[in-house]
Amino acid sequence: MGRDHRRGGNSGIDPAELAAFRQDVVAGLSLPQKALPPKHFYDAAGSRLFERICRLPEYYLTRTELALTRAHLGAIARFTGKGGALLEYGSGESLKTHLMLRAMRPAVYMPVDISGDALDAAVARLAREFRGLRIVPVIGDFTRPLDLPPLPGRGRRVVYFPGSTIGNLTPQEAQAFLRTTRGQVGPRGAMLVGVDLKKDAGILHAAYNDSRGVTAAFNLNLLARINRELGGDFDLRRFSHYAFYNAPLGRIEMHLVSLRDQTVNVGDHRFAFARGESIHTENSYKYSVAEFRAIAAQADFRGEKVWTDAKGLFALHGLLAA
Ligand code: SAH
Ligand code: AVI
User: What is the 8-class DSSP label of residue 129?
Assistant: First the structure.
């Protein structure tokens, strides 16, 4: 499923991707609790909205992880080692990657992202900044088996997964993902994972209900994308963004709530919504250091290092193959 991004630009939508999107939408809207996978947020408009979220004052995750990475860059480079190969999942605009590339100086960088638009822009920027670096971009979905090109060279393999994107998987999915990654890095490999920590629910609530409404627009863009790509007729004014912290499950949940009884068509399919009924669009799990290390241990990774900020908002885990 992994593909080189040089497949001829991103002007047209890949028919296989479109079919997979349609299948997920039809299946998800047919569930008793309607649900859509969060990976479909990231079309060109969604990736741009996410980049705006990263710069919001309430969304502490990005700036905290950036500051953390900057503050500990020497120690992080000692942990990863120099040279070798760096594989990044969910690289997006590769914001934090600049720091990692400067510190680690890998021979090869392989960014993997579902969003061809985000990947294209990031690769063009990185190629200008890191002239000798071999960049092997892959458009792919890390929730499915990925047929990645072989990582060249005999140096150490390091997988970078920042941004707490791992929190958008369930704990079971996260463990399965880490196990696959453990296979990719091999016995001498390492992994760096950014994980949002559990914290005061008020801080979390503000981060996912920002005052400018960018997160709401990001959530609603999923319906706009269904309209654009699958011939849907969602009226975006009849749905509202809803995000809350589900404390027992340790996760932010994002939903789109129907503001009235209504019927929506997606191609030949028809879906009824009762007033107040929601589509569950995303989970964002928050883990204490011990909770995340326990998941990693089940995937044969040992929590070797962890860097956290003074306010205890975010953790950057250094994992080694156990
Ligand atoms: N790493 C960046 C971006 C995080 S946003 C940061 O830390 O700021 C999440 C990124 O993961 C987006 O770029 C999105 O396109 C990508 N993504 C989400 N689900 C994905 C999936 N299933 N497979 C591959 N990439 C995915
Ligand atoms: C990409 N991911 C880690 C973000 C998060 O915080 O779960 C996506 C996001 N959803 C709403 N705001 C940001």
Answer: H
CB 280 within 8 A of CB 40: no
Chain CA centroid to CA 290, Å: 22
Question: What's residue 11's pLDDT?
Answer: 47
Cα-to-centroid distance, 123 and ligand 2 (Å): 22
pLDDT, one tens digit per residue, over 129-177 is 999 999 999 999 999 988 888 877 778 999 999 999 999 999 999 999 9
Percent of the chain past pLDDT 90, that is, above it, reads 89
At 274 the three-state DSSP class reads coil
Nearest ligand 1 atom to the CA of 50 is 5
d(CA 252, CA 167): 9
pLDDT band at 12 (very low <50, low <70, confident <90, very high): low
- Please report the DSSP string for 159-228 in residue order: EEE-TTGGGGS-HHHHHHHHHHHHHHH-TT-EEEEEEEPP--HHHHHHHHS-TT-HHHHHHHHHHHHHHH
Helix (H) or strand (E) holding 22: helix 15-29
Atom of ligand 2 nearest to the CA of 284: 7
* Cβ contact 86:160 at 8 Å: yes
Residue 68's SS3 state is helix
Taking Cα atoms as reference points, which of 259, 297, 24 lies closest to residue 171? 297
**pTM score of the predicted model:** 0.95
Give the tokens for residue 258: 């129907």
Q: Which helix (H) or strand (E) holds 16?
A: helix 15-29
- Cβ 50 under 6 angstroms from ligand 1: yes
CA–CA dist 292, 269 (Å, integer): 40
Q: For residue 148, give Cα distances in angstroms to 19, 74, 105, 138, 222.
A: 22, 30, 21, 8, 28
